[in-house]
Design a protein that fits this description.
Layout lengths: L1 H13 L3 H77 L8 H8 L13 H9 L8 H12 L1 H23 L22 H9 L10 H5 L2 H36 L3
Helix pairs in contact: 2-4, 2-9, 5-9, 6-9
Length: 263
């Protein structure tokens, strides 16, 4: 093809047809420019196609992480809702002297209070994409901002969970130091909500018979102002935790819907 155009140029020059040569030269330049533009367009189309694939893969991975978050938040909601119920029960017996709880029931309801939840956020896909620099190629900027805010807000829930853990360690456990654990049995941990298998632990404790015959008056602990202060403080923190969990669940549902409806 190049030889063909070269022969035409040479023939026009040898025949001194400068005007035709000029018109031909302009036409050749236009053809070259058109070829370059077509090549650039094809390259641009390929780059956009690749970016679309990267974006689709990113949101697919993030959606999987968000659904893991969804399951985790359901666990947290159950954990703290039950905690609130146990605290409510203890406060009800504490404030009603005529109601007798019994040592076994008391042991069952205080045991779950030793446990707290560890906050976990499944943000690996988002953080990996952020570190790799692909956010610049993603067109859904508003959705990226919402995801970024969602993962940043995790600290609010994590801080609340941590405050409950500190409160248990600093307030609840000292109250219970003087309470003998001789009444722990296979049923003690029935109300405990925990991801790990705690039943083996309670079975082991129950298998070791307590021969000390230590008198246990649980009401001395239950009906003291110190215990009441603790229960109310824990109820407030637990209520706060439930509120943050529900708020995060609402934001999560919106994000999942938007990602699923993208296409």
């Amino acid at each position: 093809m190049i030889k063909f155009f070269r022969k035409i140029r040479q023939r026009l020059l040898s025949e001194s047809k400068f005007s035709k040569y000029f018109a031909y030269a302009v036409g050749e330049i236009i053809l070259v420019v058109i070829g370059i533009l077509i090549a650039l367009q094809i390259n641009n189309w390929n780059e956009k196609r690749k970016a679309k694939i990267v974006e689709a893969n990113f949101f697919e991975d993030v959606l999987l992480d968000l659904k893991k978050d969804q399951d985790r938040l359901e666990y947290y909601e159950l954990f703290y809702t039950k905690r609130a119920e146990y605290l409510d029960t203890l406060l009800t017996y504490l404030r009603n002297p005529q109601k007798t709880m019994g040592i076994d029931k008391f042991q069952q309801y205080v045991e779950p209070l030793y446990y707290t939840a560890t906050p976990t956020s499944y943000s690996t896909s988002f953080e990996s994409a952020k570190a790799s620099g692909i956010f610049n190629d993603i067109e859904a900027k508003d959705l990226l901002k919402e995801l970024s805010q969602y993962y940043s807000d995790f600290a609010l829930m994590a801080n609340n969970f941590a405050s409950i853990t500190r409160y248990v360690e600093n307030k609840f456990e000292p109250i219970m130091y003087n309470f003998p654990e001789g009444n722990m049995n296979q049923n003690t941990g029935n109300l405990v909500i925990n991801e790990e298998n705690t039943q083996t632990f309670y079975n082991k404790i129950a298998s070791i018979k307590d021969n000390r015959n230590i008198p246990i008056d649980y009401e001395i602990i239950l009906k003291t102002p110190r215990m009441e202060n603790y229960i109310i403080g824990d109820m407030g923190r637990t209520s706060n935790a439930i509120g943050k969990i529900k708020s995060r669940q609402e934001k999560l549902q919106v994000l999942i819907h938007k990602i699923e409806e993208r296409d």
